[in-house]
Write a structure and sequence with these properties.
Elements (H helix, E strand, L loop, with lengths): L1 H4 L7 H7 L7 H16 L7 H14 L5 H12 L2 H9 L1
Helix pairs in contact: 3-4, 4-5
Amino acid sequence: AWLMIHDAGPLGLKAIYDRAGLPPRLFQAVRAGVDTWRTLQAEGVDTSGDDFRQQMLERFLTQRPNAPREDLAYLMERLDQDPAVIRVSAAA
């Protein structure tokens, strides 16, 4: 699966995404997330913790200014939240 996620061809992430039955409109956001993760990892950024979450969101917001308004609003709300609150709600 790892190879498929990082394969830009037709048998890559898109194939996994489609097989999972996820909404087609969100694929570009998922693709942007994978690409951003790959870039940050190549830059040597620590991919664990709150700083990484913040960088992922910031990069998405700057690279995808034409994303649907609802998606941008959700991400902006996530940026405004205290990371400890996000961890607690995710664990619930």
